[in-house]
Amino acid sequence: MDHLLVLLLLCSSGVQAEEKHNSESDDVRLVGGASHCAGTLELKHLGEWRVVDGYAWTLKHAAIVCQLLDCGSAVSVEWRIETPNKSVWEMEIECIQSGSAVRDCVTSDSSPVITNVTCADSVRLLNGSSLCSGRLEVKSNQSWSSVCEADFDQQDAEVVCRELGCGPPSVLQGALYGEVEAPVWSKEFQCGGHESALLDCRSSGSARNSCSLGKAVGLTCSEPDDVRMVGGANPCAGILELKHLGEWRPMYEFGWTLKDAAPICEHLDCGSAVSLQQTKSSLKFGWRIKPDCVKSRSTLRECTTSGYYNPIMNLTCSDSVRLLNGSSLCSGRLEVKSNQSWSSVCEADFDQQDAEVVCRELGCGPPSVLQAALYGEVEAPVWSKAFQCGGHESALLDCRSSGSARNSCSPGKAVGLTCSESDDVRLVGGASRCAGSLELKLGEWRPVEASEWILGKAAVICEHLHCGSLDYVEARNESLLRSVWRLKPDCVQSGSALRECATSEYSLMIMNFTCSDLLIQPNIHAFSMDGVSEAQQQGLQVSSRSNFTISCSIQPQYPGGSFQLTFTSSNTTYSYTQPAVNHSAHFLFPAAEPVHQGNYSCVYHIYVFSHNFSSESRLLSVAISDSADSPAPTASTVHTITGVVLLLILLIVITALYFSWKASRELKLRRKENTDVVYYNYSDHGAEGGSAEDESHRLKGAHLKSK
């Protein structure tokens, strides 16, 4: 009885689910197309049919509509604008995906947007990793059937992949995406490979009633060759174009970062993403790829939507080097591309100068770590020659290489490289490098837009600039709309480099930062009247009752301000404040006492930019000792005093000798003057006809003069 009740409940729930599906499919339709699985999307809600606004829908959104209509896989979706505005329904696809009824996920709106969806009529792929992979089912007479591997070959697979808008088949394997589910397609397909739909192919006359376990067709179609770069210096640079719905159109740059663009470079078999810029275009209709969709590892065609946007994306990827498995675009295991093949590089063939070239080529800063196997082991093939760069080349393949070839590389010897982040962030217009408007360089310097930021996340910028913690951040209105970079906070908080988290925008709002290291650290010095100044590490030792002075100073940044001298001992804390005069202040202690023993620091305070800021010096230790306990003079002090005394003695001796010489010289001059006077007197007497004795004296004077 219990088993019967369970069976009845299961049957009842199955019937209810089928009725719910049929009810919801009756409320959704595609009109104006070649079949009921193609056309303009309309929805019946509250008894009224209206078109659905599918603005920015992708194939992943359209797949839900195809499922509701019991059609095959989603092939295309496109929205366009019609004027004037009209009443529309908006469907929340995420709401429907959560299991809610369609009617619970619909809102009314007024919009000029209408949505065209195309689903496959009669084939679908289930349980795959993308819309181009899964277990194959075919629809006939309103019923879906599994296909047996024995009835399906490579040419049949080519038709299915083409019908679904995918690339050529890459994998055809039984039970790859699940077992056979009843019912089973009864006939063998016999396609030529050129048909546009699987049901257009011929089929065998014999019928199959069963299929062995593990034999359901599992099909993986490759992604179509639908992305290219045009107008650049090589196939890895230029304007990004996407082929969708059979038409090449430019891809519009809409919230993309370098980190988002990395899968595009990978899809094109290029190296790492290097730069991302906007290019103005006169074209008004193009394709847009949602970066969040691509990051989920969905294929590009599943993440594409049509739209009217400007500007378009100009992307540059490195064409011959890439770093894999790293924590950022500037770190990883090095690979080099030549002849359309990527090769690992052996540590023995790569040095610091080679690393400088690679980091420059990738738009990163200088190499910071070069270590074997840091980001994984060698993978074949291995680059065969040693690089011999000078360090100035613009690309690694521009460097010379050795003549000898290498065929293998020992395990653990693959080049692991970490480049530093480029100096691509700055604060400008402030009084120091730690204050001002935030600017970022991605090919060109631009200010950073102020949206989405909160105080906690903005602190990362101060840390990046080595400016301490964040004091405040504010948004400032500009008078004119200008090109800016927008940093995605979640990306920055995840530890990604700032250059990887920037996207191009137009905005009036820019960011102003002030970090805690707006002020440089003040200096503190001390000296006592004992003639002793403090050593950098040992501090100052002062004799009791001696006076000492502590000086605070700071390099000139702003006028004014004040210095607060803080003193901390084991029991108490004091502070003294003086205005800053010529960017310094001096605190005199007339008589040192034991209570003055402790640690001192200078805190500089100033009010600028409508905020109070402060900066503290290092700690200075002051010890007070009794005079009797004062330390004995050191050998250097004794030598200094001895030298001074000897100099003084020498100076005194020299001075005494000088004055002695000077006195002796003056005495000789006076004697000479007296002798000249005697000679002339005697001469005068002789002229008057004196005595013989007088004449004798005259001759004697003449004899003295001749001497």
From TrEMBL:
Disulfide bond entries: 95-105, 191-201, 293-303, 389-399, 491-501
UniProt key word Transport: no
Main localization of the protein described in the UniProt heading: secreted
SUPFAM superfamilies, alphabetized: Immunoglobulin, SRCR-like
Recorded superkingdom: Eukaryota
PROSITE patterns assigned to the protein according to its UniProt record, in alphabetical order: SRCR_2 (PS50287)
Species of provenance: Oreochromis aureus (Israeli tilapia)
Segments traversing the membrane: 641-661
GO MF term set: serine-type endopeptidase activity
InterPro entries listed in its UniProt record: Ig-like_dom_sf, Ig-like_fold, SRCR, SRCR-like_dom_sf
Record's keyword terms, sorted: Disulfide bond, Glycoprotein, Membrane, Repeat, Secreted, Signal, Transmembrane, Transmembrane helix
Compartments in which it is found: Secreted
Residues in SRCR domain copies: 28-105, 123-222, 227-320, 321-420, 425-553
GO term, biological process aspect, one: zymogen activation
N-terminal signal peptide: 1-17
Region (Disordered): 685-707
PANTHER family cross-referenced by the UniProt entry: SRCR DOMAIN-CONTAINING PROTEIN
This protein's name: SRCR domain-containing protein
GO cellular component labels: extracellular space; plasma membrane
